[in-house]
Every structure is written in structure tokens, then in C-alpha cells.
Structure to design on (424 residues):
RNA sequence: GGAGAGGUGGCCGAGUCGGCUGAAGGCAACCGCCUGCUAAGCGGUUGUAGGGGCUUAAACCUCUACCCAGGGUUCGAAUCCCUGCCUCUCCGCCA
């Protein structure tokens, strides 16, 4: 959510953001309502001041046993007028809020302008492996080694749900532990564990709602949503709180399952592990002071990259264009791992700075050491990493001519083996 | 799932039959004073948001709102009523 005063004073910037992020919002209507609201408030406040004075007088008269019925009758009309104005203000504010929550965050000036085609590759790491045999896609390697079972997953829950068996299940569990250990021990994050279902309000807080309701699993009986990412519960952990400035930044890492209906994405990119409805992810979330948030974004990106570097998986980093960024983000980097079996890059992480956009919605502030005047924190998050595509990258990059997969050095303590072979 | 109790400022805690209660009292913090040092003591200050004024801006002035949240009753609500959320106690159920 943007600050109303900011919108008032930077209407063209906001207009551009709405256009870039394809969010048609009636900004002129909003400004009109803003004027109307302020007029009504002025009038109501005046009447309330009058009422307060009269109330005091009535109280005094009653105490002195005088007849106050004349005053009371006169104030009745004022009370009714105030009620009418308050109702009007409430209605205007509700309409304004409805518009406000649909206004996207303003992209940072350093982001390339345009749609997905304008995304800028800012880094490539590692060497794309060359194979002197015919490479296989993970959907052949996985089942052949008995690691993943697509058919039985679908039988349980429908298409694009999966089941892991044996070393496949252990690989999943090992990767989670490996990533969390790395972020906690090397990067200084604190591990948290949170619920996988949350209230509607939380989805508004981080900005998934109102836009993405169709993409989420919803438990109607309790009006709870299955989380699409740990970002939602972890960022909302501190809603309505004021941090002590000296305690910032606060860094969390969390493993959670993630649930996405992926409505409307059928047909493309849905084979194998590329796009599944339930997947595991290790997430990093930061609460920081505004002046440090862009440095924190770079280090967050570095922490996510470190996972791939430690595993030895080649990847590239994209700085997303204004039109390809999510609703709430001000700046976003995507990390894409190379998948030789598919012959393409796969997004395994998305690292974003939301500035104060989410903090405003959740009312998360901090008290600077010096001024004592509370300000909104900046929030950031990044995947570190999403599991299924990391599994794809491991299976496809480290496959051998014999059909086995060499386990990256860093994962061996977690898996207990150095190679994945059939029948394990 | 059933029954009950409760949610007041940074913290603790008082608010009687609705009427100078933004809110007693205590603690904490900050600023003075005092003081070989420390401690104690004395005086003062300390919430947030929204309007309006003034200003380059900040400071400042003024009004309004806020005693979990949202409605309602009333001339007037922290105080009465309804709904929601949360916490606690007891019973039931249970991995």
C-alpha cells in the first residue's frame, strides 16, 4: 500500500507504476474522494468540538441541578448531523481503501522498463556442462532411479502432485536441512517455524490478496488459506509491531510447504517437477531500516546464490523489468538454474525488496535510535531455494552416462551416499 | 466441542450509579538540580493517527479521534449493548 500523501504529490509516478504493472486503478477518482473526505472531516471535527463543549456544559448544569433539557434537545440535531458525516467519511474511506489496495508498488529506478523481454541478465555463474552422451530430462531420470513417482502422486491428489520415494524423499529432506543450515550457520539468519495456513488478513498484508485469490487453496469453513510461500506467515509474524531500531536488521529463514493452484497455467511448463501444486521451499525474510534495504537486497541475493554455488549448479541472475515484477515489489532479482535435460533456465529463486509497501499494510514500524519518531521498516524476502527445480537441476546437471546421479559434495553428509543409483 | 473469566499508555495497575479521565497511582526512560563516587533525594518531561493553521522545511499552535477491533444506545461511553479476534481456567475429545 502506498502513502496517500505520496500519491497526492507524485500522481504521475503512481500512474506510471499502474501502467507498468498492468493494474488499472481510477486514480483521479481516488483524488476526488480524498478531497471529499477531507472536507467532511473538517465539518465533522468542527461539530464534534461544539458537541464536546456542550457536553461539558450539560454536565455542569446537571451538577448544579439546573434544567439542561433545552441544551440536550439542541444537541440532538448536532449528534445526528455528526452521525451522518461520520457515516459518509466511513463510506468514502472504504471506497478509497478498495482503490488503494489495488495500487501496486512503485518500481525502483534501477529496474529496466518494459515487459519480461526487457529483463536484464546481470550475472552468470558456473559452466554449462557438456555431455558426450544423450542427456535425459529429470522426468526420465527420477522415475528410473525410483526417486519420484508422478503417477501415484496424481492418484492421491490430482495432476501435478507428486510423491517421492526412498532416496528421492531423503534428497528432499536433505536439501531442506542443507539450505537451512547454510543460512543459519553461514549467513546469520534465525530459523523459524510457522503455520502453513493463515487468515485472510495475512494475505492482504503481504499483498497476495486481493489480486491472487484464484491461485490459492482456501478452506472455506474457517476462511483460512494454504500459504503459497513462507513469505506470508513469516513477514506477518511482526504485524502491528514496532521494532527497536538497534535490533534491526532481523533475519529469518524458514522451511514450509507451499501450495499453489496455478489456475490458468495448464498446457505450458507443467511436465515433471517444473510446476507442481505443492512444493517445499526454504525462504529468507528480512526486516531492515529503509536506508539499508538495497544493500540488504544484494546480500540476500548473495545468500540465495550461495546455495547454488555450494551445490555447484550453474545459474544466472536476472534483474526483472518493471512489467515483470510482482505487485508488491520495488525491485526483484530472479535466479535461474540451468537444466541441461530441458535445455533451458529455470527460476529457482526470487529476491525482492518491498520497501515499505508491505510494512504499511501490516503496520510494522521501528523506532530509530536517534529521533524516536517511528517509521515503517522495509521488508525483503527471497527463496533460498525452491526445492523441486533445485532437484531438477541436480538430477540433470549431475547425471552420468550410466543413468546415475552424482551427489554434490555438500549434500553427501545429508544423504549418506555419493551417488544415486537404481534400487536404493 | 461445552462452561466461565478477562483484554486500559513502554511496563504494572486504578477507574465508583455513563459527564473536566488521554486517562489516578507506581515503575521505567529522558532532562535539570543536588551530590567525593555510586546510590538516594528534589523538580520537570515522555503515546499514536487524522484534519486545519503557520512555515522553504522542521519546530510550533489548534481541533478531532484512539482505554483489543468493528458496530450500536445516548445530548455525552474506557464505563451500557451486539459482533469479531485474542488470552486464561475448567470439562470433553485427541496425534
Amino acid at each position: 500500500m502506498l502513502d496517500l500523501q505520496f500519491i497526492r504529490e507524485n500522481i504521475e509516478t503512481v500512474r506510471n507504476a499502474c501502467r507498468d504493472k498492468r493494474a488499472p486503478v481510477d486514480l483521479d477518482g481516488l483524488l476526488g474522494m480524498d478531497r471529499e473526505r477531507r472536507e467532511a472531516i473538517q465539518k465533522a471535527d468542527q461539530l464534534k468540538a461544539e458537541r464536546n463543549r456542550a457536553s461539558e456544559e450539560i454536565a455542569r448544569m446537571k451538577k448544579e441541578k439546573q434544567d439542561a433539557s433545552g441544551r440536550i434537545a439542541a444537541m440532538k440535531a448536532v449528534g445526528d448531523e455528526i452521525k451522518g458525516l461520520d457515516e459518509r467519511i466511513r463510506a468514502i474511506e472504504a471506497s478509497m481503501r478498495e482503490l488503494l489496495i489495488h495500487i501496486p508498488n512503485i518500481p525502483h529506478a534501477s529496474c529496466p522498463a518494459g515487459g519480461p523481454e526487457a529483463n536484464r541478465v546481470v550475472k552468470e555463474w558456473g559452466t554449462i556442462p557438456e555431455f558426450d552422451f544423450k542427456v535425459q530430462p529429470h522426468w526420465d531420470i527420477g522415475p528410473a532411479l525410483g526417486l519420484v513417482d508422478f503417477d501415484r502422486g496424481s492418484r492421491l491428489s490430482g495432476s501435478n502432485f507428486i510423491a517421492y520415494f526412498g532416496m528421492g524423499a531423503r534428497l528432499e529432506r536433505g536439501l531442506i536441512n542443507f539450505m537451512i543450515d547454510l543460512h543459519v550457520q553461514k549467513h546469520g539468519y534465525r530459523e523459524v517455524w510457522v503455520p502453513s495456513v493463515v487468515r485472510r488478513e495475512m494475505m492482504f498484508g503481504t499483498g497476495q490478496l486481493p489480486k491472487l485469490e484464484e491461485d490459492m487453496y482456501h478452506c472455506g469453513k474457517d476462511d483460512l488459506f494454504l500459504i503459497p510461500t513462507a513469505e506470508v506467515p513469516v513477514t506477518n509474524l511482526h504485524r502491528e509491531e514496532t521494532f527497536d531500531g538497534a535490533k534491526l536488521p532481523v533475519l529469518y529463514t524458514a522451511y514450509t510447504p507451499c501450495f499453489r493452484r496455478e489456475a490458468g497455467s495448464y498446457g505450458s511448463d507443467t511436465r515433471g517437477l517444473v510446476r507442481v501444486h505443492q512444493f517445499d521451499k526454504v525462504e529468507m525474510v528480512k526486516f531492515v531500516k529503509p536506508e539499508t534495504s538495497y544493500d540488504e537486497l544484494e546480500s540476500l541475493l548473495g545468500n540465495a546464490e550461495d546455495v547454488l554455488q555450494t551445490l555447484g549448479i550453474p545459474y544466472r541472475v536476472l534483474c526483472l523489468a518493471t512489467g515483470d515484477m510482482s505487485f508488491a515489489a520495488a525491485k526483484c532479482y530472479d535466479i535461474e538454474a540451468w537444466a541441461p535435460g530441458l535445455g533451458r533456465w529455470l527460476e529457482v529463486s526470487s529476491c525482492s525488496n518491498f520497501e515499505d509497501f508491505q510494512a504499511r499494510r501490516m503496520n510494522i514500524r521501528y523506532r530509530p535510535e536517534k529521533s524516536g519518531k517511528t517509521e515503517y521498516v522495509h521488508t525483503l524476502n527471497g527463496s533460498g531455494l525452491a526445492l523441486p527445480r533445485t532437484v531438477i537441476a541436480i538430477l540433470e546437471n549431475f547425471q552420468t552416462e550410466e543413468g546415475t546421479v552424482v551427489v554434490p559434495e555438500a549434500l553427501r553428509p545429508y544423504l549418506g551416499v555419493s551417488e544415486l543409483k537404481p534400487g536404493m
Notes: Chain A has 13 helices and 18 strands. The longest strand of chain A covers residues 278-288.
